[in-house]
Amino acid sequence: MKGIEEDVNMTRAEKINDQVFEFVEFRIGSSLFGISITNVREIIQPLAVTKIPHAHPNVKGIIQLRGEVLPVIDFGTMTGSVIDEQGADTKYIVSEFTDRTIVFEVCAVTQIDRVDVTEIEKSSNMYEGERVPLSGVIKREAHIVLLVDFEKVLAEQFD
Asked: Which pLDDT tens digit goes with each residue over 70-103?
């Protein structure tokens, strides 16, 4: 009987995952962005960054996190919203993608949220920039959350 219960639970989980999008919402300047929770390994306080001479302009440097050396991407610079110094709310989002782990520096993590996939509006070429390709937008009462296509960002800017 336990096998059937596991199958039912898995089916429910798959059904929820098909209908719900979970994401980490973060702020850069006055704009809100989102990254899929499936790509977020952890959210940490900023660590000491070792600068790399002649690195890509969006690469702030590298950090050592539990013995792993990881690049830190300044998401503010990438979006054209240069933030001169870290504030009290600055966070690092440690993100995992197909073949690499990247750390994104953001002004603040505002919340972890979930929405029905029908609430995600496809992005338009009219407002999608070259620097930060979008996979969609989520409309809220007081603001809009821009869902970034991070795989595309990494492929276009760092490959």
From this structure: 999 998 888 877 666 678 899 999 999 988 999 9
CATH code for the domain in which residue 27 is found: 2.40.50.180
pTM above 0.70, yes or no: yes
Quote the domain boundaries for residue 142: 21-158
Q: What would the pLDDT profile of 44-63 be if each residue is shown by its tens digit? A: 999 999 999 999 888 999 99
Supply φ then ψ for residue 4, to 5 degrees.
Answer: -65, -40
Answer yes or no: is 13 within a domain: no
Q: Residue 139 domain-assigned?
A: yes
Q: How far apart are the C-alpha atoms of 138 and 121, rounded to whole Å?
A: 6
* 3-state secondary structure (DSSP) of residue 13: helix
Report how far residue 150's alpha carbon sits from residue 28's, in angstroms, rounded to the nearest whole number.
Answer: 15
**Distance, CA of 141 to CA of 139 (rounded, Å):** 7
Distances in whole angstroms, Cα of residue 54 to Cα of each of 51, 57, 76, 156: 9, 8, 19, 19
Number of domains the chain contains? 1
